[in-house]
């Protein structure tokens, strides 16, 4: 196993982006909210929404006291709006189970709504400084290239955590930096399409670069195009509800000009099933 930790730490301390959740005073709630928002959403889109969210609800208890509809509306156009409902439910659970304090224990974090293995580990490591491997898409790409000599990682598996754990130093503080550095390297240098190997701190020990950067295939699932998709229809319906007075619209007036009426109706049904909308008395509204 090549020593990846030392060059990652040195590179990160000189090149890390100045992001809000990396500030020492940001706190566990801010880290948790940022992780919810960063799922499948670029950093530049998240930052203004994150700042607005934390200004409105600076603690889990503040969010728990708000209506779910307020959370969905504040989520605005971040996409995947179920995350807003999940975050609201998690805030209620933090208030009721943990006296309003985001827990540090991974099992306690996993028991909260909407929190999976990655988010639980990210909060434990980046908010509380515990030593755990944290693996996102960017980290997996760095590990696949540097250690396995693959151009892209395979499907996510527990092996990713084992591979990341193997390069972590025992010191908790340094281990947290290595976790962050691997993510940052994948996001800014070891990118999916145009990796900048000439400025990579791992170039002298990267297995993929050593064998000439072969294309070893890409087994990752491809996301369907957004244009014309059910996701686009769901977004149009939610946008109508967010913008409406009292967040309620007669069902007949919900994006009536949508080109595919069956798709629109399917979107409405799926939003109701997900708890993102409610229908009664001929009206569609955000959840109470």
Automatic annotation (TrEMBL):
The keyword Metal-binding applies. The keyword 4Fe-4S does not apply. SUPFAM superfamilies: DNA-glycosylase (SSF48150). Gene3D superfamilies: Helix-hairpin-Helix base-excision DNA repair enzymes (C-terminal) (1.10.1670.10), Hypothetical protein, domain 2 (1.10.340.30). InterPro entries: DNA_glycosylase, Endonuclease3_FeS-loop_motif, HhH-GPD_domain, HhH_base_excis_C, MIG/MutY. Keywords: DNA damage, DNA repair, Glycosidase, Hydrolase, Iron, Iron-sulfur, Metal-binding. Its cofactor is [4Fe-4S] cluster. SMART domains: ENDO3c, FES. Signal peptide: none annotated. Residues 37-188 form the HhH-GPD domain. It comes from the Bacteria. Pfam families: EndIII_4Fe-2S, HhH-GPD. Belongs to the Nth/MutY family. This is A/G-specific adenine glycosylase. It comes from Microbacterium ureisolvens.
């Amino acid at each position: 196993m090549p020593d990846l930790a030392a060059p990652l730490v040195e590179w990160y301390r000189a090149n890390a982006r100045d992001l809000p959740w990396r500030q020492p005073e940001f706190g566990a709630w801010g880290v948790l909210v940022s992780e919810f928002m960063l799922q499948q959403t670029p950093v530049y889109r998240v930052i203004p929404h994150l700042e607005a969210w934390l200004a409105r609800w600076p603690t889990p208890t503040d969010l728990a006291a708000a209506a779910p509809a307020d959370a969905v509306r504040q989520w605005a156009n971040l996409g995947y709006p179920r995350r807003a409902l999940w975050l609201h439910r998690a805030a209620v659970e933090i208030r009721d189970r943990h006296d309003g304090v985001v827990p540090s224990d991974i099992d306690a974090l996993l028991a909260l709504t909407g929190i999976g293995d990655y988010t639980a580990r990210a909060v434990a490591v980046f908010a509380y400084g515990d030593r755990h491997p944290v693996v996102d898409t960017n980290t997996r790409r760095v590990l696949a290239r540097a250690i396995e000599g693959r151009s892209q990682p395979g499907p996510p598996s527990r092996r990713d955590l084992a591979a990341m754990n193997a390069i972590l130093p025992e010191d908790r503080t340094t281990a947290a930096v290595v976790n962050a550095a691997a993510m940052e390297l994948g996001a800014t240098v070891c990118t999916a399409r145009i990796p900048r190997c000439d400025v990579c701190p791992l170039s002298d020990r990267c297995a993929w670069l050593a064998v000439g950067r072969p294309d070893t295939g890409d087994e990752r699932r491809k996301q369907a195009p957004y244009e014309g998709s059910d996701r686009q229809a769901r977004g149009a319906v939610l946008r109508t509800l967010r913008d409406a007075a009292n967040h309620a619209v007669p069902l007949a007036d919900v994006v009536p000009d949508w080109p595919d009426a069956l798709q629109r109706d399917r979107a409405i049904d799926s939003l109701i099933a997900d708890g993102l909308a409610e229908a009664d008395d001929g009206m569609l509204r955000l959840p109470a």
